[in-house]
C-alpha cells in the first residue's frame, strides 16, 4: 500500500520579517503534524490587538521582538490531516484554533475555576508547546517563528490537539473565528469569570472589540445598567448596539472625576468593572469605581508600558476584589461551542463586531485600519488570495 502519511505543504502566508514592517505574502512550507498535532486549512482569520502588539513590539516589552514570524491567532478552518495519537478529530472537521489549551485530564482543566491547562501549559514564547520547534519554513528552507502556537496568517497551520475546538459546520466561519479569542474573551469575562448577576450594574472601561463583547456578555447575563467609558464620542451610539445603556466620556466631565461620576450613576459604585484598555491609571479608576462590600474588577488589558498597578489597600478591607483574566476565564473546548450556539440563536450578536473584510493579499490594510482606530474586527479570507 502507498504511504498515506501527511507530507509537507507549500502555501501562501503573510510573513512579518521586521518589527513594525509591512507583512509580505510569501510561499512557505508547512510541515506535517507530529504526534498530538493537527494541520488545519485556514478558511478565515481576523486581526486582534495582540497581533498588533507583537507586530510592533517595544524593546522593553515583557517578550523580546522575534522575527521573521507568522502572526495571527483568531481563526476558523478545516482539519486537513492529523498526527499520531489524535483521536477526537478527523479530516474534514470544522474547527477553531485557540491560543489557550484544554486537555480535560489535568487538575487545572478538571477544576471549575481554572482555565489554565497544566499538562500542556500556555506560553507566549515561540515553538510548539510540546517540543518547542516550528512547523514553518520559508522558500529558502529557513525556519519561520510561530505565534502563540497558532499562526493563522497562513493558508495552512499546525496546532496542538489541546488548542483545537470542534464547532458545528452550520456556524458561520467568521463568527466562529471571533470566538477563538477577542469575542470569547469579552463575553467570557462577564459570563464565566465575573459571573455577572441579573439586575446588576456593570462599567466597561474601553469600548473596543473586547469591551463591546463584555457588554454583550453582561446583557446576556441580565445586567440592567451597562456603562461604557471611552474617550471616543462615536462609541456612544456604537455601544448601544451591544447593550450599553449609559456612556461616559472622561474628557467631558469638567471638574468631576470618572470615579465620582460612576459612583453617582451606580448608586455607590458598580457591581462589576472591566478594564479593557491596558493602562495602569485606568485600572485604578476601574477598581475605585467598584461598589464597597462586593465590587469585582476584572483586568483584561495588558499594561502597554509595563507599569505596576498601585491600589489603596484600605479599599480591599471594604470587600472589593481584583481579578485577572486570560481568555475571559473560559475553557475553550467546553465553552466555545456553547457561545457559538448562543450566537446562532441570537442570544449573542457578535457579528456586529465585524467592520471590514479583506483577502490575504490585503492584510496590511487590516493592520492600517486597526492602527487608525477605524476597525473593530477585520476578517481576512484565505480563498480570495490574489498575488
From TrEMBL:
It catalyses: a primary alcohol + NAD(+) = an aldehyde + NADH + H(+); a secondary alcohol + NAD(+) = a ketone + NADH + H(+). The keyword Oxidoreductase applies. It is found in: Cytoplasm. Residues 36-168 form the Alcohol dehydrogenase-like N-terminal domain. Coiled coil: none annotated. Residues 209-333 form the Alcohol dehydrogenase-like C-terminal domain. One of its GO terms (biological process) is formaldehyde catabolic process. Keywords: Metal-binding, NAD, Oxidoreductase, Zinc. The keyword Metal-binding applies. One of its GO terms (molecular function) is alcohol dehydrogenase (NAD+) activity. SUPFAM superfamilies: GroES-like, NAD(P)-binding Rossmann-fold domains. GO terms for cellular component: cytosol. Its cofactor is Zn(2+). It holds the Pfam family ADH_N. Homodimer. PANTHER family: ALCOHOL DEHYDROGENASE, OS03G0189600 PROTEIN. Belongs to the zinc-containing alcohol dehydrogenase family. Class-III subfamily. This is Alcohol dehydrogenase. It comes from Lolium multiflorum.
Amino acid at each position: 500500500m502507498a504511504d498515506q502519511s501527511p507530507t509537507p505543504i507549500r502555501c501562501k502566508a503573510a510573513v512579518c520579517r521586521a518589527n513594525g514592517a509591512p507583512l509580505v505574502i510569501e510561499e512557505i512550507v508547512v510541515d506535517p503534524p507530529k504526534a498530538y498535532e493537527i494541520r488545519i486549512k485556514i478558511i478565515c482569520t481576523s486581526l486582534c490587538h495582540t497581533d498588533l502588539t507583537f507586530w510592533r513590539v517595544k524593546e522593553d516589552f515583557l517578550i523580546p521582538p522575534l522575527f521573521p514570524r507568522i502572526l495571527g491567532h483568531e481563526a476558523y478552518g478545516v482539519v486537513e490531516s492529523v498526527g499520531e495519537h489524535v483521536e477526537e478529530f478527523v479530516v474534514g472537521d470544522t474547527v477553531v484554533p485557540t491560543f489557550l489549551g484544554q486537555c480535560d485530564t489535568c487538575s487545572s482543566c478538571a477544576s471549575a475555576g481554572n482555565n489554565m491547562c497544566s499538562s500542556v501549559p500556555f506560553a507566549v514564547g515561540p515553538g510548539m508547546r510540546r517540543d518547542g520547534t516550528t512547523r514553518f519554513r520559508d522558500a529558502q528552507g529557513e525556519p519561520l517563528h510561530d505565534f502563540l502556537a497558532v499562526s493563522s496568517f497562513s493558508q495552512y497551520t499546525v496546532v496542538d490537539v489541546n488548542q483545537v475546538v470542534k464547532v458545528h459546520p452550520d456556524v458561520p466561519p467568521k463568527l466562529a473565528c471571533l470566538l477563538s479569542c477577542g469575542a470569547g474573551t469579552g463575553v467570557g469575562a462577564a459570563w464565566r469569570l465575573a459571573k455577572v448577576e441579573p439586575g446588576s450594574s456593570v462599567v466597561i472601561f474601553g469600548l473596543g472589540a473586547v469591551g463591546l463583547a463584555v457588554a454583550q456578555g453582561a446583557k446576556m447575563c441580565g445586567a440592567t445598567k451597562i456603562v461604557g467609558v471611552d474617550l471616543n464620542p462615536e462609541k456612544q451610539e456604537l455601544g448601544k448596539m451591544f447593550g450599553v445603556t449609559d456612556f461616559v466620556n472622561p474628557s467631558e466631565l469638567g471638574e468631576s472625576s470618572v470615579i465620582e461620576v460612576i459612583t453617582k450613576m451606580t448608586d455607590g459604585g458598580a457591581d462589576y468593572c472591566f478594564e479593557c484598555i491596558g493602562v495602569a491609571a485606568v485600572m485604578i479608576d476601574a477598581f475605585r469605581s467598584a461598589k464597597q462590600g462586593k465590587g469585582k474588577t476584572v483586568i483584561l488589558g495588558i499594561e502597554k508600558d509595563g507599569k505596576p498597578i498601585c491600589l489603596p489597600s484600605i479599599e480591599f478591607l471594604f470587600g472589593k476584589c481584583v481579578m485577572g483574566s486570560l481568555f475571559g476565564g473560559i475553557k475553550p473546548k467546553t465553552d466555545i461551542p456553547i457561545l457559538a450556539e448562543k450566537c446562532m440563536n441570537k442570544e449573542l450578536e457578535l457579528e456586529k463586531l465585524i467592520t471590514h473584510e479583506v483577502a490575504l493579499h490585503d492584510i496590511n490594510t487590516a493592520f492600517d485600519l486597526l492602527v487608525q482606530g477605524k476597525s473593530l474586527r477585520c476578517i481576512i479570507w484565505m480563498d480570495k488570495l490574489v498575488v
